[in-house]
Write a structure and sequence with these properties.
about 170 residues; alpha+beta; Phosphorylase Kinase, domain 1; five-stranded antiparallel sheet; two-stranded antiparallel ribbon; 4 helices; globular
Length: about 170
């Protein structure tokens, strides 16, 4: 896939979210995450300008020092971003494999409290988080104004277990 005159080789699809498809890609011997914005309908979320939202959300969370992959390159014309690839299992993968996520839970609660104090919610779905070197990375950039019904305690935590809500989302 061509991004700003650089040819990235797609290795595999990492996932599909509300806003785009994320791929593991390589360029000149290094690996990255390439996110290609899509315009498929989403029945429960309204986007205005996905690309601008992505960039604004990254800036907003960066200003708060949220641990995330670095944004490395932007191709606005083709609606693609290149970001640092964070290697490791997502919290969702660990949950489904019945692995211990106690370190991730401690971290997410600290992050959620901090974001609440700053009037922000993020997408707490467990596929958006990877623990690497004892740091919990939020690998998405989405954020919104704080609303209690979408904070970790009222929305996110039900997905951080092998609950019925989690199983419905993956089937």
């Amino acid at each position: 896939m061509k991004v700003n005159n650089k040819e990235y080789e797609i290795i595999k699809l990492l996932g599909k979210g509300k806003g785009g498809y994320s791929y593991l890609v390589s360029y000149q011997g290094s690996v990255y995450t390439l996110k290609k914005i899509h315009h498929e309908p989403c029945e429960y979320y309204t986007f205005y300008n996905k690309m601008e939202s992505e960039l604004n959300d990254y800036r907003r969370l960066s200003a708060l020092n949220i641990v995330m992959p670095k944004l490395l390159e932007v191709d606005k014309e083709n609606e693609i971003i290149i970001k640092e690839y964070i290697e490791g299992k997502t919290v969702l993968e660990k949950i489904l494999a019945d692995e211990d996520i106690s370190a991730e839970l401690r971290s997410i609660k600290t992050i959620a409290d901090y974001l609440k104090d700053n009037n922000i919610n993020i997408d707490y779905y467990p596929s958006n988080f990877i623990l690497k070197n004892e740091r919990l990375y939020y690998v998405d950039y989405e954020c919104n104004a704080y609303m209690s019904q979408y904070d970790f305690d009222n929305w996110g935590q039900k997905y951080w277990s092998r609950s019925e809500e989690l199983l419905k989302t993956i089937n």
